[in-house]
Each structure stands twice: as C-alpha cells, then as structure tokens.
Amino acid sequence: MPIRNRPVAILLAITLSACVLSGCGTINEKLSAGMGDYVPQWLGGLPADAPPRPGTPKYDEWMKERDRQRLEPAPPADTTNPQASSRPSGSNPAH
C-alpha cells in the first residue's frame, strides 16, 4: 500500500535521517575526542606544536619542561645595535 500523502512521506524521511545522523554524533564521546588526534593537519587536525592532552604521561613531562623553562633567567638583550629598537625621534604614539 503506497503512501498517498507525499508531504507526510517527505517529513518522515527527513525526521528519520535527522535521528540517524544525531545518533552518529553521540556514539562515544571518548571515541570522537580521540579521533581528532589521528586527523592530518592539512585536513584540519591538531597542529604539530599542539601540547599533549591532559592526563597523559607526555602532558606531565611537558608541564615540567614548561615550568623549568619559565624559571630559567631570560637571555641577555642584544645590545649590538641600540638604534634598531628605539623609535625615531619626534614620533609620538597615538594612544
């Protein structure tokens, strides 16, 4: 028995498609979060210099290294060309 009311059939098809697609997004939040690590950068994945995820051993090592670098003294400023960093005389910034 064919469906005689075409708008009802279209509405039913759209509703069914929406339900199926919404289920795909909520399959497993851990699966979807982990899959982002495997997407290449050129396809929109994580950049090469992104920090590791929290809760992993690499993250703890990264945080220790970051703290170590933070506590190191800053390298001395380059004083070979003092005119390179100064503004030209007579120029006033417009703040």
SSE diagram, text form:
Elements: H1 6-25, H2 29-35, H3 57-71
Question: Could you describe the 3D structure shown?
Answer:
- The protein is mostly helical and 95 residues long.
- Among the domains are: 30 residues, no CATH class; 31 residues, no CATH class.
- The longest helix is centred in the N-terminal third of the chain and has 20 residues.
- The radius of gyration is 29 Å and the shape is elongated.
- The relative contact order is 0.04.
- The model has no long low-confidence stretch (mean pLDDT 76).
Brief digest:
With 95 residues, the protein is mainly α. Helix content is 44%, strand content 0%.
Give the averaged pLDDT, no decimals.
76
**SS summary, helix count:** 3
What share of residues are in beta strands? Answer: under 5%
The helicity comes to: 40-55%
- Span between N and C termini? 77 Å
Structural class by secondary-structure content: mainly alpha
Give unreliable regions as ranges.
none
Shape: elongated
Total DSSP E strands: 0
Order of helices and strands: HHH
Tell me the Rg in angstroms.
Answer: 29 Å
Please describe the biggest sheet, giving its number of strands, its sense, and whether it closes into a barrel: none
Characteristics of this structure?
single chain; 95 residues; mainly alpha
